[in-house]
Structure formats: structure tokens, C-alpha cells
Amino acid sequence: xxxxxxLDRLRSSVETGAVAELGTRHGLDLLMVHGxxxxxxxLRAAADLDVAFRHRxxxxxxxxxxxxxxxxxxxxxxxxxxxxxxxxxxxxxxALGPDSLVLYEATPGTFATAQMAAITIEMDTRHLRxxxxxxxxxR
Length: 139
Known about the structure:
Elements: H1 3-16, H2 18-25, E1 28-34, E2 49-55, H3 63-74, E3 79-83, H4 89-95, E4 101-105, H5 110-124, H6 126-137
Parallel strand pairs: 2-3
Antiparallel strand pairs: 1-2, 1-4
Helix pairs in contact: 4-5
């Protein structure tokens, strides 16, 4: 089993409504695939399936249960989960980038709003990360 086959299974599960059921059951407002499995010209084949998700603010978080259900849905066990509520600024911006594939959004526009916020925050704080690197380098 490859991450590409797992991605195809996820896409099929979107069509059948299984992903929407999973999103509702786990209290998600956003679920997407990102990373090398979506790269049309990768330097090397993808080894895992990068999946980003965000729970609703009022939802309980069962990340292990979510990943377990994703493994059942895809038949693939190398799922790399990213919780967007606890991820760093750069990780959020990358996962919510223009090349990501939205599998589920609780309401239309959730992804677009999250994407704009993540990219703006990443750009607005870039100079602070550079300063941190300079301090660590002893400059």
C-alpha cells in the first residue's frame, strides 16, 4: 500500500460521504491532505500521508481515534497527523497552502478563512523568526 493509493481511497470516501461522517463524528471543522503526496513532480516518492485537521472549539479532541479511523478508511498506517489548533505558525501556513486538498469543511469558506489567517500570520511574524535565528547564531 502506498500513500497515493491511500489518497485515492480518501477521495473516494469524500464522494460516498464517509469523510463528512468522520468529520462530524470527531467534531472537526476542517480536514485536509497536504505535503509530498500531492506534489506532481516530487524529488522522491511520498512515504506517508500528511493529514491536517482542526477540531471545532467546542469539540473534544480524540486525535488517536481520528487517526485510527483514517487508517481504517484508507487501509494505510503511515498517516502523519497535524493538529492545526496546536501546530506552529509555519506548519499551519504550509498545511493550509494553495497545494493542499480539502477533504472536509464543516461550513463553506472555513478553509479559505483559515488559509488567509495562517498565511498572514506567517508573513507578519517572519521577521521575528529571523531575529530568533540571528540570536541563536550569536550575531
